Amino acid sequence: MFVSEALKVNNRNHLEIGGCDCVDLVEQYGTPLYVMDEGLIRKNCRTYKNAMDKYYSGNGLVLFASKAFCTMAMCKIAEQEGLGLDVVSGGELYTALKAGFPMDKVYFHGNNKMIEELELAIDHNIRRIVVDNKEELHHINKIASEKGKIVNISFRIKPGIDAHTHDFVQTGQIDSKFGVALENGEAFDIYETASKLSNVKVVGVHCHIGSQIFDLAPFELAAKVMISFIAEVKEKLGIEIEELNLGGGFGIKYIPEHDPIEYDHYIESVSKVVKGLCEDKRIKLPFIVMEPGRSIVASAGITLYKIGAVKDIKDVRKYVSVDGGMCDNPRYALYQSPYDAVLANRPDAIKSEKVTIAGKCCESGDLLAKDLLMPEIKVGDVLAVLATGAYNYSMSSNYNRIPRPPVVLVKDSKSRVIVKREDFDDIVRNDIIPEDL
Ligand code: LLP
After folding, report:
1. What CATH code is assigned to 7-37+299-422?
2. pTM (2 d.p.)
3. Beta strands in 283-366 (DSSP E)
4. Residues 89-99: tens digit of each pLDDT
């Protein structure tokens, strides 16, 4: 009935997640409210981990791409489920550190890592820095030599694959700010340069071909292209690359029309391709790394709002306004990403009319969904926007000085706050009125 298996209708005819009644959650914590189902997050982690064990004899590591939902509690869950972590900033790395996440399972990405961020990563001996460009390579070598260390690195490579997804999240092609390209020789050159540096050890290759992909083929193709590159680097430079990181990007069901592939199939099919090619090319089977973000957390999350206004503009459109919006979920405004929604206080009400869900920000484009088929909505109803567990909290802002909602983690009918609600004092915390003003 719902796009996410985390949800059901309980005997009070309310929406339920993790055994918790959504109307009760709203009473207890207020709105807007992010709710995350711990059971489904853990199940998704295990699906990936078990697939790596089953199809690739465990010779790999699944990382949670923390950008999708970076909180200390989530780092703990990922650790407990045996996953590694992909971080892309000092802030994400610091969150992992504060959560006590094992640094020997952390990979650091990013196209313009700051010196201080690199120092933080090197000081804590993280497992891998995925280098994006030559400047960064030289910075790492310098920092490592000053600290008397050898740093294990891999490089982000653009394999030139069109993964048929939204332009904004397509990163595998040559016209991208991320990484070095294969087709113009940039990628080969950077391996050659690195091979001559004394304080880095080249251990891997990395690519990430896009996001919200519903197809196995681009991943199989990426694996092929990368294995060929590993073979070329071995032949021409004598460097044995031990690790192949194929990134994330596995699609999820936001709306009923979406039909995602079972997550373990990605690992199954990539494993097959890698094994076959390595045999053909007589190279050692690499350690495989995958970096799912969205597919681990998106379906596990919902956002609960109160309806504050209903505006029926005759023959034009019906707007219903919620007490959040692009400040807690900018994804419709940014990418026109579709969402499904239900009324948490009467989830099985018949859908009878099209409504546009608007946020409370001072911005016409502040919508969460356009022309969505919904039951008749009244002021005071509780609206649940579904599958908001990824890139919602992590992309939220204080636009219009709106405090961020809290995040509540639910499991076995229990709810716990994992991120507190911001208040107005949080909003002005860093403001300063200079004395001479
Ligand atoms: N690895 C790398 C190197 C990445 O750049 C990304 C996402 C991932 C893994 C995880 O991809 P996922 O499995 O979550 O699709 N803000 C956008 C998504 C940007 C993704 C950026 N990189 C959104 O809201 O759709």
Report:
1. 2.40.37.10
2. 0.97
3. 287-290, 301-313, 317-322, 341-343, 353-358
4. 999 999 999 99
